[in-house]
């Protein structure tokens, strides 16, 4: 939210550290990545191509692991990137069932196919629309991927993924940012993150520049016709939104049944908004919590829409609130009332690291936790124990061995994001330094998988 000094004063009075701004967070990360660059972390041939390796006695090759096998790996340099530095990832399942991923890199988006044995094949790439940037984010609706970036004047690339279906992998294709795009939407220039709501064909770009006119809040783009995206509205009341999940609501708060609701992660608050009317969205609540340092991302527990999980990106870094021990801390929010959500508990990982993105599938939260890599947490106990006491880690794959000798570190290195929604069950993890990992969880399912 971060709209007034009044709020900051109230937050400080409540005994919690004031949350940081995006500008400060960006500065911290740029510093870290400049040091990494200096140390050669993105150099060519810095990392080895690695064959599929099972997790045995806590190790898959050089990677620490538990109940997660390595099935495939492609380095950023093997996916046509000349900056060799990764960021977001999303997946696409073709109408015929083939599975593909769009892998974010600072200089573009790589396309890979995930084969039935879990291996990955590079097919080609779409370069950045303007310059390179550490931030690139993509989501898929139907057969199109929508790509935004913090790169100046980037806009929203719209790319038809069916173009990947007949590529011969022996000659990967570099697509044109003019003739191969379905559309390039320039209603905004830079953006931090792209949120997609498949059910309403809406893209919500967040963290757009002030000049785009939405104060960095939800910049709504109607992509019903992917070839001609149309601005549908703006939510600027809560200021900068860092990420969001939007749904057609069917949870316990029957006042909002059938409404389009977004859960916005707003730097120092969880904001719940009704965006049914694009021209006059309504904020239903804005709630902060002990330890709020940089409210980053989150995901609903399941389709009953009673709980959500939230991650804060700076609580571990600064050691704020419950994260004073720097163990990755996940917040549980009871959203039974959309106007009065309550923070009901936390979960702390056994690992020291910052959290970045998490998605929940069938009672398991797949967390991309920077230096501790993929962490799989059984979250199915939340409805019976909303204080978080029943949560447990059931598997992990640590894609960043460099900090192992320290017992982990709360730093902005390692994995950026994870895509756990493929029917095949393979989970893709994009690491900043190394490349994309195809992983298979081999442990037990959640005790209670509600969907
Ligand atoms: C989106 O565009 C479609 C087709 O042009 C239109 O029918 C629909 O009402 C639009 N939705 C919104 C929310 O503007």
TrEMBL record:
GO terms for cellular component: extracellular region. It holds the Pfam family LVIVD. Residues 1-19 form the signal peptide. It comes from the Eukaryota. Coiled coil: none annotated. Keywords: Signal. PANTHER family: REGULATORY P DOMAIN-CONTAINING PROTEIN. This is Regulatory P domain-containing protein.
């Amino acid at each position: 939210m971060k709209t007034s000094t009044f709020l900051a004063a109230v937050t400080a009075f409540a005994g919690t550290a004031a949350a940081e701004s995006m500008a400060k967070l960006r500065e911290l990360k740029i510093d870290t990545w400049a040091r990494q660059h200096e140390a050669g972390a993105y150099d060519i041939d810095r990392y080895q191509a690695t064959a599929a390796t099972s997790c045995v006695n806590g190790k898959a090759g050089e990677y620490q692991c538990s109940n997660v096998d390595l099935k495939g790996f492609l380095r950023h340099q093997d996916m046509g990137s000349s900056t060799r530095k990764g960021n977001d990832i999303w997946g696409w399942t073709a109408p015929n069932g083939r599975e593909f991923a769009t892998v974010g890199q600072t200089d573009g988006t790589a396309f890979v196919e995930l084969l039935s044995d879990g291996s990955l094949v590079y097919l080609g790439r779409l370069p950045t629309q303007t310059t390179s940037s550490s931030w690139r984010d993509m989501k898929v609706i139907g057969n199109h991927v929508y790509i935004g970036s913090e790169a100046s004047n980037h806009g929203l690339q719209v790319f038809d993924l069916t173009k990947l279906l007949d590529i011969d992998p022996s000659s990967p294709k570099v697509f044109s940012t003019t003739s191969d795009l379905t559309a390039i939407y320039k209603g905004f220039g830079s953006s931090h993150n792209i949120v997609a709501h498949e059910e309403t064909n809406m893209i919500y770009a967040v963290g757009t520049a002030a000049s785009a006119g939405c104060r960095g809040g939800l910049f709504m783009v109607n992509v019903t016709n992917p070839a001609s995206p149309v601005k549908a509205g703006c939510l600027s009341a809560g200021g900068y939104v860092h990420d969001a999940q939007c749904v057609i609501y069917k949870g316990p708060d029957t006042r909002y049944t059938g409404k389009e609701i977004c859960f916005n992660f707003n730097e120092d608050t969880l904001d719940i908004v009704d965006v049914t009317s694009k021209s006059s969205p309504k904020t239903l609540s804005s709630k902060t919590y002990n330890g709020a340092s940089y409210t980053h991302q989150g995901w609903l527990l399941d389709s009953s829409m009673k709980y959500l999980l939230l991650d804060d990106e700076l609580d571990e870094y600064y050691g704020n609130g419950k994260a004073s021990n720097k163990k990755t801390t996940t917040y549980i929010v009871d959203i039974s009332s959309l106007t009065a959500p309550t923070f009901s508990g936390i979960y702390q990982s056994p690992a020291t690291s910052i959290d970045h993105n998490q998605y929940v599938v069938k009672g398991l939260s797949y967390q991309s936790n920077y230096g501790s890599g993929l962490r799989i947490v059984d979250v199915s106990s939340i409805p019976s124990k909303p204080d978080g006491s029943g949560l447990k880690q059931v598997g992990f794959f640590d894609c960043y061995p460099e900090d192992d000798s320290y017992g982990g570190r709360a730093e902005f290195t390692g994995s950026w994001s994870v895509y756990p929604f493929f029917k095949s069950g393979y989970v893709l993890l994009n690491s900043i330094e190394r490349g994309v990992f195809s992983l298979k969880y081999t442990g037990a399912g959640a005790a209670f998988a509600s969907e």
